[in-house]
Specification:
The complex is a heterodimer of chains A (about 450) and B (about 375). Chain A is of the alpha+beta class. Chain A contains 15 helices and 18 strands. Chain A folds into 4 domains: about 90 residues, Uridine Diphospho-n-acetylenolpyruvylglucosamine Reductase, domain 2, CATH 3.30.43; about 120 residues, Uridine Diphospho-n-acetylenolpyruvylglucosamine Reductase, domain 3; about 110 residues, Alpha-Beta Plaits (2-Layer Sandwich), CATH 3.30.70; about 110 residues, 2-Layer Sandwich (Alpha-Beta Plaits). Chain B folds into 3 domains: about 100 residues, Fumarate Reductase Iron-sulfur Protein, Chain B, domain 2, CATH 1.10.1060.10; about 100 residues, Rossmann fold; about 110 residues, Rossmann fold (3-Layer(aba) Sandwich). In chain B, helix 9 crosses helix 19. Chain B is globular, with a radius of gyration of 21 Å. Classes of the chains: A alpha+beta (about 450), B alpha/beta (about 375).
């Protein structure tokens, strides 16, 4: 990094908020994906003015800038390319305002999801997306990847809750989007354009989120299926029951086998297990909903059906689903967690296709995920130090993406494109759509300084 | 695949584990060093990434890495919460040894080893305190105080001994020297000479039970090969909280009391309930802080961090005390003099609660009865 840029950055953020020391550079080379590249420096920004001044400088000097939250993204969104400046947003972590009466909160991007959850709990409210990394991930990261979680089917993802943003655009101007109202059709929806834009269009410095009252009762049940098609049909037929479960998760056969090999949970070794939760305000209400769901399970040849009679039993039922990632992470040195999403009627087809791909390329792909919204998590388990296995993994993922698109699905339900899925963007988006996306990128960021190399925008 | 012969012991012993880190970053939620600095390079994931790059030959294990690798309290919160099961504290301890062996070490850690070559305790204090008790006599029990209790938290120790007297326990103090277990955490080995001296002193008393005030000493006596002889000859090593749990103290308080789990007692030894059993008997108004048991926050003192990175160590203690404030505790109890020392030093003037060892608190209740 040129000495004059270093000095200019120090002038903006102060010496204590600038680093190019080796330990920081190594740490900022990575996120939770398989990618890594050394940045040239990192700054801990504390104010919107810091961000604005840095972007002005970077835009003038044509230096890439990569905004970063907790670095828990799985697709390389926060991996810096081309000797970038990393903007660590995690110290802008103030909850600015909680307004229950207006049903919203205003937060800085570095607030950790769990900290907001804790702050809202005392009012009986919550911000529903509930990403798996909730204890560490930041709300800025949630916005930039449109994060979701297990409750997506009923409660949607981050995008459904972002009412407005303060964003610094690449020329350094500070812009407000959206409003602090429950509805607005005033102009283009710039807010939603920035949600899921992975730090390629601007740096989010303030977020206004809609919040929900938290339900107080839940019922949980589990059903086993000897036949994958039955499980798939059960998922899609739940919609006919008129009930939208708050959670509907599926564990595929390979995941069940891996859990049994590595824990003492002793799951029935069936083709698929479905786990459902219904939520509401009274047990009568949640039990009523669950009965409807269990009827659907039964009609579709479920083997064993178990309804939790207590919170403890419910947490036992969830143990298998919750252990999946950890169990699979311990089998080999590398894991890649995909998040392909298909229409709910195609879940069984997707699972069958994944099994075939796994067998063809002789690589472990264990699948589980959010059946309720068609978002599955095939987890690739392999030795990343073995070039042969890396090659198999790459070939298998390419086939997985093709299969997903062929089934009418999307590359990513909640993790984003990043580096990992950039080469596959054109599988899903036609040339016109790619042109429009690239045009928007050029309009806002003509010098391509913001998170370059991601989402196939700069080709 | 060609693998070069590993250059370091950490790689020989822990290569698979370091690579097992899936970089999910979930340790950021619990790492006390990250929590008080918000600097990812100091988080457990940051440390594992450095080691991965060392093994990949991208960086050298040298002075530039000290600030991260020597700044870990070995509290084991990360290990407790790691989806991939990476035992970060053990890896860090081994890496520190590797670094020391190639001449790379934080000066404070090096100093500790030097001090223990010439002195009997980590503070290089030469006048051993006897707390007005006859030492090295024949007794059923040896009470082993530990360096912090001997030279920094004397009042606490005095009170513990008074309590043991009140309970008519047949114990003796010995001319103890540092158990030197801490050296294993900071890149060195247990000092055999010191270990020998402690073993001989214990045997000379004829005691079959060794009670320690310090959970780290207890861990050292129970687990380290240098102290195997104690165990082999039937000396039962207990932490004071294990020893006291069945006594009827006959006192009670209405005060709102909370308990801080020392990492060495909790996550490292699994002792969570014994101290709580004691406290609940005397303080029915017992309330947990937001983080407790295996999720307890570290006080920031461990792993040599208090000596080497005092400012961050105090910041960690402040985060812990903040939780005591949030529940309006009047008394914060723990049973580790190191925790007492760091938490007391970090206490702000507005924080009116007291930070005590359980033993001292009980003793004071008895005194005022």
């Amino acid at each position: 990094m040129a000495e004059k840029i270093k000095q200019a950055l120090i002038d903006i953020v102060g010496e204590n908020n600038y680093t190019d020391s080796l330990i920081d550079m190594v740490s900022y080379s990575y996120d939770a994906s398989e990618y890594s590249q050394r940045p040239s420096c990192a700054v801990w920004v504390e104010t919107v003015e810091h961000v604005s001044d840095i972007l002005k400088l970077a835009n003038r000097e044509h230096v890439p800038v990569v905004p970063r939250g907790a670095g828990t993204g799985l697709t390389g969104t926060a991996t810096p390319l081309n000797e970038a400046i990393v903007l660590d947003m995690s110290r802008m972590n103030e909850i600015i305002k909680i307004s229950i009466e207006d049903r919203l909160v205003i937060v800085q991007p570095g607030v950790v999801y769990a900290d907001l959850e804790k702050a809202l709990a005392q009012y009986g409210f919550f911000f529903p997306p509930d990403p798996a990394s909730g204890t560490v991930c930041t709300l800025g990261g949630n916005v930039s990847t449109n994060a979701g979680g297990v409750k997506g089917a009923k409660y949607g993802t981050t995008r459904d809750y972002v009412l407005g943003l303060q964003v610094v655009i690449p020329d350094g101007r500070i812009m407000r989007t959206g409003s602090r109202t429950m509805k607005s059709v005033s102009g283009y929806d710039l807010t939603k354009l920035f949600v899921g834009s992975e730090g390629t269009l601007g740096v989010v410095t303030e977020i206004t989120l809609k919040i929900n009252p938290k339900t107080t009762a839940a019922t949980t049940s589990m059903a086993t299926f000897d036949n994958l098609e039955d499980a798939g049909r059960a998922v899609s037929q739940i919609m006919y029951s008129g009930i939208i479960p708050s959670v509907l998760e599926i564990l595929g056969h390979d995941t069940i086998m891996a859990i049994n090999r590595n824990t003492d949970l002793d799951l029935p070794e069936v083709d698929a297990i479905l786990l459902a939760e219904t939520d509401g305000y009274t047990t009568a209400e949640t039990d009523f909903q669950m009965e409807k769901i269990i009827e659907v399970f039964k009609k579709n040849n479920a083997g064993k059906i178990k309804r939790a009679e207590s919170e403890e039993e419910a947490s036992d039922l969830w143990a298998a689903r919750k252990s999946a990632y950890a169990v699979l992470s311990r089998i080999k040195t590398h894991v890649v967690l995909e998040d392909v999403t298909v229409p709910m009627t195609k879940i069984a087809d997707l699972l069958k296709g994944i099994k075939a791909i796994s067998e063809k390329h002789n690589i472990i792909i264990a699948t589980y995920g959010h059946a309720g919204d068609g978002n599955l998590h095939p987890q690739f388990v392999y030795d990343g130090y073995d070039p042969k296995q890396v090659k198999s993994k790459e070939a298998a993922s390419a086939e997985l993406f093709q299969l997903t698109i062929d089934l009418g699905g999307t590359l990513t339900g909640e993790h984003g494109i990043g580096l990992q899925k950039a080469p596959f963007m054109t599988l899903e988006h036609d040339p016109a759509a790619m042109d429009v996306m690239r045009g928007i990128k050029r309009l806002l960021d003509p010098n391509n300084i913001l998170n370059p190399g991601k989402m196939a925008l700069d080709e | 695949m060609n693998k070069m012969e590993a250059k370091y012991d950490f790689e020989r012993k822990y290569r698979e584990q370091v690579l097992q880190c899936s970089r999910c970053g979930f340790c950021q939620a619990v790492c006390p060093v990250f929590g008080s600095t918000l600097r990812p390079a100091l988080n457990a994931r940051g440390k594992m990434l450095l080691l991965k790059e060392v093994m990949d030959g991208k960086i050298q294990l040298d002075d530039e890495l000290i600030e991260s690798l020597f700044q870990c309290t070995t509290c084991a919160s990360c290990f407790e919460n790691c989806p991939s099961g990476v035992n970060v504290p053990d890896i860090i301890k081994q890496v520190r040894k590797d670094m020391v062996s190639i001449g790379t070490c934080h000066p404070a850690f090096k100093g500790m080893n030097e001090v223990l070559k010439r002195h009997t305790n980590i503070y290089a204090e030469d006048d051993a305190e006897d707390f007005g008790r006859e030492k090295n006599r024949k007794a059923e029990i040896v009470y082993f105080v530990g360096c912090v209790g001997l030279y920094r938290e004397e009042e606490s120790t005095e009170a513990t001994l008074d309590l043991l007297d009140r309970l008519n326990v047949d114990y003796t103090l010995i001319d103890e020297v540092c158990c030197s277990g801490v050296l294993e955490d900071v890149g060195f080995e247990i000092n055999e000479e010191l270990a020998r001296k402690n073993i001989e002193l214990v045997f000379a008393t004829g005691a079959k039970t060794l009670i320690t005030g310090c959970p780290y000493c207890s861990r050292t006596f129970n687990n380290k090969p240098q102290y195997a002889e104690l165990r082999e000859k039937g000396v039962n090593v207990l932490h004071i909280s294990q020893f006291l749990k069945d006594f009827d103290m006959g006192v009670k308080t209405d005060k709102k009391v909370t308990y801080h789990d020392p990492c060495d007692l909790g996550r490292h030894c699994g002792i969570y309930e014994e101290p709580r059993e004691i406290i609940r008997k005397i303080a029915p108004n017992f309330v947990e802080m937001a983080h407790h048991h295996a999720d307890s926050l570290c006080c920031g003192a461990g792993g040599g961090v208090r000596g080497a990175y005092a400012k961050n160590s105090l910041a960690m203690a402040r985060r812990r005390l903040q939780e005591a404030e949030e529940i309006d505790a009047e008394v914060v109890l723990t049973e580790c003099n190191s925790c007492i020392h760091n938490l007391s030093n970090a206490k702000l003037r507005r924080q009116k609660f007291e930070v005590y060892n359980i033993t001292r608190f009980i003793n004071e209740l008895m005194e005022n009865k």
